[in-house]
Design a protein that fits this description.
Shape: globular
Largest sheet: 8 strands, parallel, barrel
Number of domains: 1
Number of helices: 10
Number of strands: 8
Strand content: 15-25%
Helix content: 40-55%
CATH superfamily: Aldolase class I
Low-confidence stretches: none
CATH topology: TIM Barrel
Bound molecules: 1,3-dihydroxyacetonephosphate
CATH architecture: Alpha-Beta Barrel
Length: 247
């Protein structure tokens, strides 16, 4: 299976710096095509110029969210067909920041994923436990419960990527041990056998404080099929180093 490294820029980037970064990454990808699939997920305002900047580079584009409905009277929201139209192949859904900031439930994430897939996108569905949930020993139960609630039926390796992002690891500089990552990813893989088709081919990403120094070690863990990178994707050097570590 082809590994996947996605850069989630979150609510960061203006045209000047975001497009320059995309151009720089595109030039590097053209000069030395990466073995892994690389996806850039800029804020919605930069989708069009980033799409232009990475055209013919082999890099892919992703959105950071979409509405549960494809179109309609939803001021400020973005529909999955709009992401597709802007050149996206992927969309991140159910990120813990959206679950926190916009009270997104598993049911909402599931509806978004169904709409995204119907629009021809591949859904990157995020799950992960809080620090309190980990401390109480419920990590695997929480993650499986989120997964069951967040996945529409019959997704497959072409329509689904799962991202395990422990909430406490995001932006904190802390990561789980490789043994902890291995345990959760194995549990997710087992759950996917009930929840998706081609379960062994569905890519499971790790996300949360991924840096050039830990990328290789994380990628070596069984069932880690790629990385979802936040802060580390805002620097061309760092993101390229992470992506290269995965090859
Ligand atoms: P950081 O890499 O900044 O910890 O963020 C991870 C993340 O939330 C990616 O979606």
């Amino acid at each position: 299976m082809r590994k996947l490294v996605a850069g989630n820029w979150k609510m960061n980037g203006l045209a000047a710096d975001g497009v320059a970064r995309a151009r720089d990454l595109a030039a590097r990808a053209k000069a030395k095509p990466p073995v892994s699939e690389i996806v850039l997920c800029p804020p919605a305002t930069l989708l069009a110029p980033v799409a232009q900047a990475i055209a013919d580079s082999g890099l892919a584009l992703g959105g950071q969210d979409c509405h549960t409905e494809a179109a309609g009277a939803h001021t400020g929201d973005i529909g999955a067909p709009m992401l597709k139209d802007a050149g996206c192949v992927y969309v991140i859904l159910g990120h813990s920041e959206r679950r926190r900031d916009h009270q997104e439930t598993d049911a909402v994430v599931r509806a978004k994923a169904a709409t995204a897939v119907a629009a021809g996108l591949c859904a990157i569905v995020c799950v992960g436990e809080t620090a309190a949930e980990r401390a109480s020993g419920r990590t695997e139960a929480i993650v499986v419960h989120q997964l069951r609630g967040s996945l529409p039926p019959k997704l497959n390796a072409a329509t689904l990527v799962v991202a395990y992002e422990p909430v406490w690891a995001i932006g904190s500089g802390r990561t789980p041990t490789v043994d902890d990552v291995a345990a959760v990813h194995a549990r997710i893989r087992a759950a996917l056998h009930d929840l998706a088709t081609q379960a062994d081919a569905v890519r499971i990403l790790y996300g949360g404080s991924v840096k050039p120094v830990n990328a290789r070690e994380l990628m070596a863990v069984a069932n880690v099929d790629g990385l979802l990178v936040g802060g580390g994707s805002l620097s061309t050097e760092e993101f390229w180093a992470i992506a290269s570590a995965c090859d």
